[in-house]
């Protein structure tokens, strides 16, 4: 979905390096999410944010941090990358209507930690 | 944690056949959603079914929900090669603050 963009699309880094994955959206949604996807494990929630001042940990937040710079921008940082953080990372936004949420995903960032 | 589990994990069919995949979940829900993911891409929302609905249609998609069995099924009729993708069900966590996705069913449709 071109309304949710992620940069970079692919990244190779070394153990111990700090890296940042960025997400931008033009959908005007307040809610944003970061997930990682590993083969056989589906999507797991890392962090989510309901607005600029609201940040929440997800299922697997250890080793990650986030920053919500603006309504449209939500960045994920790996403070000191390790090989088991090699995965496909997705950003998503959502809108709630009548207690129902639909999420819109970015194209993903493929991260390899050596 | 509340989570949908899809079944089967993988499904291979011929073009023109119907594909059925199932999702089971653990606790009560307000609604259940199905998403599709083409290889290496982001998930795309397909359809949402509310807890008071038993069946819903969208084009070649038919979703059913049985809240007594805590299960849902997604039927794709007259499948096409372009339907090849992974399909995920999703339900809200108990706090209602995030979606929990299952591990997905990988569908392969050959021509």
Please provide a written account of the structure.
- The complex is a heterodimer of chains A (114) and B (111).
- The termini of chain A are far apart.
- In chain A, 0% of the residues lie in helices and 63% in strands.
- Chain A has 114 residues and is mostly beta strands.
- Chain B has 111 residues and is mainly beta.
- In chain B, 0% of the residues lie in helices and 56% in strands.
- Chain B is built from no helices and eleven strands.
- Chain B has strands at residues 5-7, 10-14, 19-24, 31-37, 43-50, 55-58, 61-66, 71-76, 85-92, 99-101, 105-110.
- In chain B, strands 2, 4, 5, 9, 10 and 11 form a six-stranded mixed sheet that branches.
- In chain B, strand 9 and strand 10 form a beta hairpin.
- Chain B is globular.
- Chain B starts with a strand and ends with a strand.
- The model of chain B has no long low-confidence stretch (mean pLDDT 92).
- The chains are: A mainly beta (114), B mainly beta (111).
Spatial gap, N to C terminus of chain B: 39 Å
- Main beta sheet of chain B: strand number and arrangement? 6 strands, mixed
H/E element string of chain B?
EEEEEEEEEEE
Q: Helical proportion of chain A?
A: under 10%
- Given the structure, what is the number of helices of chain A? 0
Spans of chain B of at least 5 consecutive residues whose pLDDT stays below 50 are none
> How large, in whole angstroms, is the Cα Rg of chain A?
13 Å
Strand content of chain B: over 45%
Evaluate the radius of gyration of chain B: 13 Å
Structure annotation, total helices of chain B: 0
**Largest interface in this structure:** A-B, 29 and 25 residues
Structure summary, number of beta strands of chain B: 11
The topology string of helices and strands of chain A comes to EEEEEEEEEEE
Q: Give the rounded overall mean pLDDT of chain A.
A: 93
Tell me the fraction of residues in β-strands of chain A, as a range: over 45%
